[in-house]
Amino acid sequence: MNRTRSNAFRRPGRTVGRRWQIVGVAAVAVTVVGVGLGVASASESSVSTIVCPGVAQALPAVPAQSQAEVERNLALLNTQVSEANNRLKTSTGQGGANFVQNAILGPLKDKRVSTIDRIVISIGRHATKPVLDEQGLGTCTVGAGGTVSTPEPTAVATANPSTGGNQTGAAPTVKCPELTGLPSIPAQAQAEVKSNLTLLQTQINEANARLAGTVGQGGPNFIQNAILGPLADKRTATINRIATAIGRNAPRPDLNVEGTAPCTLNK
């Protein structure tokens, strides 16, 4: 009788001990999972991206007959970069020292050069064939983690039909300084910065279209007052938004707005 009672009294203690062991293991598991998620999140924010030269900004005003084909090929350039970025992300750690160059950047360059050549040929059917550095524009690099890759604008300025499609220099185009001094972009700011970088190119395209559509209009100050001045104001606001977005999560960069916002003309 005494033994039975003694065992009965011991069992609850053992049960409680087991329960504490289970709780402890669960807590450790949750901690490990939490650490794992933190590491995954940090690694995702530092994933490298492919950075390519802008092609649209190197183009002259495009003949209206070539506009659709040129814009399709500019969109294709974006698709090619997107596919290469996905390949870069999903193949991390694969291959040897030259894997990225041989398996991703090399094939991407071949595709880009072919696409840029189609753009040049398309323009050349209806106007003077532009001379582009196809090899240079086709060559991409891998940016450091946090680097933002600017999408290729897919809207192009068209030549003024009244000037004749085969005339060169019928309308000037806008020449703007490149935005330099960008630091590594915090993950929280990447989407906003990318959107505003795209907007900078959209503003240039719109100004080029305005130039092409207003050839011969206004007096000597028309272009400055109606096109370049408003463009500088838009660029100032956009560049400031980029600096502000970065500054919310990192030191605010000095992007030299006064020197970068004003644009001139390519004659």
Output the keywords.
267 residues; mainly alpha; 2 domains; two-stranded antiparallel ribbon
Proportion in helices: 55-70%
Overall, the morphology is flat
- Give the radius of gyration: 29 Å
Order of helices and strands: HEHHHEEHHHE
Largest sheet at a glance? 2 strands, antiparallel
Mean pLDDT: 79
What would you call the structural class?
mainly alpha
TL;DR of this structure?
With about 270 residues, the chain is mainly alpha-helical. It is built from seven helices and four strands.
Provide structural commentary.
The chain is mainly α and 267 residues long. It folds into two domains: 44-157, no CATH class; 171-267, no CATH class. Helices cover 57% and strands 4% of the residues. It contains seven helices and four strands. The chain has helices at 2-45, 67-90, 99-124, 134-138, 190-213, 222-247, 257-260, and strands at 50-51, 141-142, 173-175, 264-266. It has a two-stranded antiparallel sheet with strand order 1-2. Helix 2 (67-90) packs antiparallel against helix 3 and helix 5 runs antiparallel to helix 6 (222-247). The chain starts with a helix and ends with a strand. The model is unreliable at 4-9, 25-45 and 162-169 (pLDDT under 50).
Secondary structure elements and their pairing?
Elements lengths: L1 H44 L4 E2 L15 H24 L8 H26 L9 H5 L2 E2 L30 E3 L14 H24 L8 H26 L9 H4 L3 E3 L1
Antiparallel strand pairs: 1-2, 3-4
